[in-house]
Amino acid sequence: MSYNWAAYDSATSCVKMPKGMTNLMAYLLKRYAYSRSMGICNCRSVNGGTSRSHHSECRAGDWGIPTGAGGSYRPELGDPVVELLGPHGKRLGLDHLILNRRIYSARSPNGRYYSGRHPHYNHAHIGINSAGAKRLTMATLIDVLGDVGAGIPLPPGDDEDMEKYITEQQKNLNAAGFKGANGRVLTVDGIYGANTAYAEASRDKAAAADGGSIPHKHPISGETGVAG
Ligand SMILES: [Zn+2]
Ligand SMILES: [Zn+2]
């Protein structure tokens, strides 16, 4: 399979272009019922110099998936999103994707080693260019990628992995300051209850407006940025 991606479109400011990535994230969450959003907009994440993370323009989404033993990558959960998006990167305006220690972009359509500190075993960081961020709709996504279907669930017997995953999410939500429905810091217990759901909803709402909760930076080198 050969993939294609839009030209790398560097982020330079904190202007908010949430539409395209918000729609893509919604599409992915519906299609892969085992996944979660880990955040979209984040204006605080500066990578040094004049370059900023795509998150600063709401042009990146962190699509979260459960990890395996010891926080390991689970290819059966993560690989499908690369296989889904890779053939349509240009069409959708996707300009990079980081997953499982690899970065995919126009420079390396089928991926190269990603050396950032975060290995991206628990989420795919997906970037979209400015045009896509302004225009990409759910209708286009369904037209290009197909219907979301009934939502692919986590394979059976994965309760333990899901518990670890929820635990990690609870820690991230606490670190980012999102409280439960009871107004308190979440209990880190791996159980997806009303308070965790509330904190997640708050985080996603904040991400759509501003804020976000990206718990790590995405240093990216070797890409030729397009201004704007
Ligand atoms: Zn990210
Ligand atoms: Zn990331």
List the helices and strands and how they pair.
Layout: H1 19-31, E1 36-37, E2 60-64, H2 75-85, H3 89-92, E3 94-99, E4 102-105, E5 112-113, E6 123-128, H4 130-135, H5 138-145, H6 159-175, H7 194-209
Antiparallel strand pairs: 1-2, 2-6, 3-4, 3-6, 4-5
Bound molecules: zinc ion (2 copies).
Number of H/I helices: 7
Largest β sheet strand count, sense and barrel closure: 6 strands, antiparallel
Strand order of the largest sheet: 1-2-6-3-4-5
Distance between the termini: 31 Å
Report the bound ligands by name, code or SMILES: zinc ion
| Secondary-structure element order, N to C | HEEHHEEEEHHHH
Task: Indicate the radius of gyration in whole angstroms.
Answer: 17 Å
Secondary structure category: alpha+beta
Total strands: the figure is: 6
Strand residue content: 5-15%
Count of discrete domains: 2
Helix content: 25-40%
Query: What is the average per-residue confidence, as pLDDT, rounded to a whole number?
Result: 86
Poorly predicted runs:
none
Characterize the overall form: globular
Description of the structure:
The structure is a single chain. By secondary structure, this protein is an alpha+beta fold. It has two domains: 1-155, no CATH class; 156-214, no CATH class. It has seven helices and six strands; from the N terminus they run H-E-E-H-H-E-E-E-E-H-H-H-H. The chain has helices at 19-31, 75-85, 89-92, 130-135, 138-145, 159-175, 194-209, and strands at 36-37, 60-64, 94-99, 102-105, 112-113, 123-128. The protein has a six-stranded antiparallel beta sheet. A hairpin with a 2-residue loop joins strand 3 (94-99) and strand 4. The longest helix is centred in the C-terminal third of the chain and has 17 residues, at 159-175. The protein is globular. The chain starts with 18 loop residues before the first helix and ends in a 19-residue tail after the last helix. 42% of the residues are buried. The mean pLDDT is 86. The protein binds zinc ion (ZN) (2 copies). The site of one zinc ion has 7 residues, from strand 6.
